[in-house]
Automatic annotation (TrEMBL):
Residues annotated as transmembrane: 28-46, 52-73, 80-98, 104-124, 136-156, 176-196, 203-225, 231-250
Protein name: Sugar phosphate transporter domain-containing protein
Major localization class: membrane
Chain ranges of the Sugar phosphate transporter domain: 4-249
Keywords: Membrane, Transmembrane, Transmembrane helix
Coiled coil spans: none
Topology with respect to the bilayer: Multi-pass membrane protein
Species of origin: Rehmannia glutinosa (Chinese foxglove)
Domain of life: Eukaryota
Keyword Zinc-finger in record: no
Annotated compartments: Membrane
Pfam families: TPT (PF03151)
Length: 272
């Protein structure tokens, strides 16, 4: 659906996304591979990890992105940024100590998902900066390159062709059709905003925004879904985790605010 929408938008003149290029596709092949691996391992982890703890583990991504960014030449982040990310990670570890429904398989899948998410976000940021690709173009290539991986996945897991009979049986249900359409729309919007945020800001900022988004998801997971053993350590860890995300946002805001006067003074100097 994403591929068709972008293609239609380009023909109608709604987007300036360039035509499909084989060389560009080769460069973005790893992005797509890591993206789909992240999705696959994330879904697999939910079989053994409850929603609040899954979100908490995924909040380790900022720390992983911070480390990856240091190694690929982004330089050393500010002290506040580093400390806020470490606080976010510490919250995850404390929350894990209070998770009495610990499942080794689920945790293993979730941590693997963190690795793949880190890799594709770093590569998206790099592609936007070095190759001048827009978020729409990256999403277009990612959608096309994802089709073979996803086809292999659904065949290997036995979802295809069994899922077709379920789909046809459910197609007469209005509520199912509405939910399917909403899932498609939300998925497209989510991918677009995620790629856009990563290119305009950074991979680290995208992951921290995800931490703040997780506050609502965590609360809903505890209240609505049930089946979660609430413990003082668990709740404390999640609170610390969230505080780290808020601190990061404040640190980045202060960093941007401090840069503005310097930029203005440079402009004034050049004009003189």
């Amino acid at each position: 659906m994403t591929t068709l929408l972008i293609r239609f938008g380009r023909i109608m003149g709604y987007t300036k996304a360039r035509e499909f290029n084989v060389e560009t596709a080769k460069k973005l092949l790893l992005v797509s591979l890591f993206y789909n691996a992240n999705v696959a391992f994330a879904l697999a982890s939910l079989k053994g990890v409850n929603i609040p703890m899954y979100i908490a583990i995924k909040r380790l991504t900022p720390l992983a992105v911070l480390i990856a960014g240091f190694f690929y030449g982004k330089g050393r982040p500010t002290t506040q940024v580093t400390l806020s990310v470490l606080l976010t990670a510490a919250g995850v570890l404390i929350a894990a100590l209070g998770d009495f429904s610990f499942d080794l398989f689920g945790y293993g899948m979730a941590f693997t998902s963190v690795f793949f998410q880190t890799m594709y976000l770093v590569l998206v940021e790099k592609s936007g900066a070095e190759d001048g690709l827009s978020s729409v173009e990256i999403m277009f290539y990612n959608s096309i390159l994802s089709i073979p991986f996803l086809l292999f996945l659904i065949i290997a897991t036995g979802e295809f062709p069994n899922s077709l009979s379920i789909l046809f049986a459910k197609s007469t249900s209005l509520s199912f059709s509405v939910l399917l359409l909403l899932s498609l729309v939300m998925g497209i919007v989510l991918n677009y905003t995620m790629f856009l945020c990563t290119i305009v800001n950074s991979a680290l900022t995208t992951t921290i925004v995800g931490v703040l988004k997780g506050v609502g998801s965590t609360t809903l997971g505890f209240v609505l879904l049930g089946g979660v053993e609430v413990h003082a350590l668990n709740v404390t860890g999640l609170v610390i985790n969230t505080a780290g995300g808020v601190w990061y946002s404040f640190a980045k805001y202060q960093q941007k605010k401090n840069k503005l006067p310097k930029v203005m003074s440079d402009v004034e100097t050049r004009s003189k």
